[in-house]
Specification:
InterPro entries: AB_hydrolase_1, AB_hydrolase_fold. The chain is built from 14 helices and ten strands. It has helices at residues 6-28, 32-40, 85-90, 92-96, 110-117, 138-147, 173-190, 205-219, 236-239, 259-266, 275-285, 305-316, 325-334, 373-382, and strands spanning 64-70, 76-82, 122-127, 154-160, 198-203, 226-230, 289-296, 336-340, 343-351, 354-361. Helix 6 (138-147) links the parallel strand 3 (122-127) and strand 4 (154-160). It binds 2-acetamido-2-deoxy-beta-D-glucopyranose (2 copies).
Length: 393
């Protein structure tokens, strides 16, 4: 056999080494504990920041009340209550006199009583994506985008799931959904905000949490003012072959085009996050639903086509027995408005009470979109604070 030229031998060894390393990592990830670390990335956070000092993130002193609540299975969940700045301005001197830091009893704070006592106050419950905390990256800017404005009465409740930030425990799909349900129960039972003044908003992994939470409430006959899903996905096994870490590392894309191999590898996923099925179920169970599905075309982490599929699943669930793809496409085309630059809005109005809206925007990437107008506008529409005309919803 002719000896390989040294340069080819080197390249060959490098490829062999990288391939073996890749396979080794995949095998390691069949371990549920490692896999959950890889999916939730809950230990990656800016540990040098003190989340009990929200001024670090540009909020007014005591505009945010950090506090803990408990889940039925005994975890302590760390949360932020963010009050709208205009409301803060009206009560500034009283709020400034309150103790700062993580509240021993949030129900004794002025911010809390302003949320509970005002019959017009509204609440967005925010479920963030994987990695980091309530205070990470675009998240803090997004709270301002959603609630600021001199006349806003929109409060935000943001939580860190178990295992994230200062919360106790270790994340699993079931556990994280339990945390989300506990947050909603806190809002309805402790803060006494009725569900028709609550919007549930999730981004990325948080859309999975949202789908899981709203389905559980739909089963009890409880509907919300609105559900907003930003940069969502249909299920973890569907997503992973398409997902790029940080927008550039497509970890599982080698399996994208081999159906059998893909199914085999994906069968090792422990937390499958079946959002499309859960949303469809929620649509069927709800008496009233306003579902907003928003995704940016330039999202390099999760392709926007995932939101297309979420919309199809939710719309399909408004029909008896479902409709075939050709009919769906025809009906969707009829209710789609071109917004220019490749952006569009499709509004599926099954009835006055069941409206599903897909908005594909041109800009916003994967996370920054949270701070962009379409997301805040969706919340305003869900709360009925819009004109209710032009484009239906
Ligand atoms: C909130 O919970 C965390 C985690 O258990 C704990 O370290 C912290 O002291 C709690 N804060 C208050 C004010 O209870
Ligand atoms: C709707 O659901 C039916 C029954 O599950 C399925 O056969 C059909 O392909 C679905 N249509 C769309 C557009 O997803």
């Amino acid at each position: 056999m002719a000896p390989l030229a040294p340069i080819f031998k080197k390249a060959y060894l490098t490829v062999l080494f990288l391939t073996s390393f890749y396979i080794l990592v995949l095998v390691a990830l069949t371990n549920p504990w490692l896999q959950r670390h890889a999916i939730y990335v809950h230990k990656v956070q800016a540990w040098w920041q003190d989340m009990n000092k929200p001024e670090q993130f540009g909020f007014a002193k005591n505009q945010i009340t950090p506090f803990n609540f408990s889940t039925p299975d005994g975890e302590t969940i760390y949360a932020w209550h963010v009050m709208p700045l205009g409301l803060y301005a009206k009560h500034e001197s009283e709020i400034l006199q309150q103790p700062s830091g993580c509240a021993e009893d949030i129900t004794k704070t002025k911010a809390f009583s302003l949320l509970r006592e005002d019959p017009d106050s509204r609440l967005i419950i925010n479920f963030h994506g994987n990695a980091g905390t309530v205070s990470q990256a675009w998240r803090t800017d997004s709270y301002r985008a959603l609630s600021d404005g001199s006349t806003s009465n929109i409060h935000i409740l943001a939580i860190d799931y178990r295992g994230f930030g200062y919360s106790t425990g270790f994340p699993t799909e079931d556990g994280v959904i339990t945390d989300g349900v506990a947050a909603v129960n806190w809002a309805m039972q402790v803060a006494k905000v009725p569900s028709d003044r609550i919007v549930i908003l999730g981004q990325s992994l948080g859309t999975g949490v949202t789908a899981g939470v709203v389905e559980r409430f739909a089963k009890q006959g409880i509907d919300f003012a609105g559900i907003v899903l930003v940069a969502g996905f249909t299920s973890m096994p569907d997503l992973l072959p398409e997902y790029s870490i940080g927008g550039f590392l497509p970890v599982l894309s080698p399996f994208k085009h081999h159906a059998t191999l893909k199914r085999y590898v994906m069968s090792y996923i422990v937390d499958t996050w079946e959002s499309a099925a859960r949303l469809a179920n929620t649509v069927r169970l709800s008496k009233k639903i306003r579902l907003f599905i928003i995704h940016a075309k330039d999202d390099n982490d999760i392709p926007w086509t995932q939101s297309e599929a979420l919309f199809a699943a939710a719309a399909n669930a408004t029909t008896n027995g479902g409709m075939d793809v050709a009919l769906f496409r025809k009906m969707k085309a009829r209710s789609t408005t071109d917004m220019g630059d490749g952006a569009f809005i499709s509004t599926w109005k099954a009835s006055e009470n069941k409206i599903i809206r897909e908005e594909i925007v041109s800009y916003g990437h994967h996370s920054r979109i949270l701070t962009y107008a379409p997301v805040a506008l969706a919340a305003l529409k869900a709360f009925g604070l819009d004109e209710g005309g032009v484009l239906p919803l």
